[in-house]
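Quarterly update from the structural biology core.
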Amino acid sequence: MEEKSVLKEALEWGYCIVIAIILALLIRYYIGTPTIVKQPSMFPTLKQDQRLWLNRWGRTTKKMPKRGEIITFEAPSVTFLSDCENPQEPVAVYNKEPKGIFAKFTYYVLEIGKTSYIKRVVGLPGEHIEIKDGKVFVNGDELQEEYLQPGVVTDVSKGVFSDFYVPKDCVFAIGDNRSQSTDCRAFGCIPLEKIESSVAFRFWPFSAFGTVK
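Predicted structure, tokenized:
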């Protein structure tokens, strides 16, 4: 009787652990998850080693992000798209999709072997984007970017696309640290299906706790 009781308790604990893991994975994939800033492409808005909470509800509901929103997305397979099929509507290339259920689960849910970028949305579907005179123009009007450091210049030294239209169901996103960011200027616009999350707030360091603009 005692052995059966111990076995029953162990099984119950096992079930609880499995359920907890499943719930954690569901929350992480569909609702939100923490992350660490690893690159300087969004400096000074975001600094390396800062901790952020990412909102993934937008991916779950397939909602298009707003201009100015900071998002994360799956890194394209080609980071410098020198040979683009349609340079007037450049779309990032994703041609290294994992095959098989286990491989997809490991890559998309556990995010093992997956690289993500964090950038700011500046162009929305159908908009005409021009990068000239060190600035970004949307439909002919200069984009007011108060979040940039004084003296920051936006050019195409980090890319090839400077005059184009944002394709349907895509966004044009670039880093605030323009000279140190490899972004849509180099690899094209990001399809909505590849956007993973938006930055909800920063929780570390405590001195910088709060929303990120």
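Residues 26 and 137 are 39 Å apart (CA to CA).
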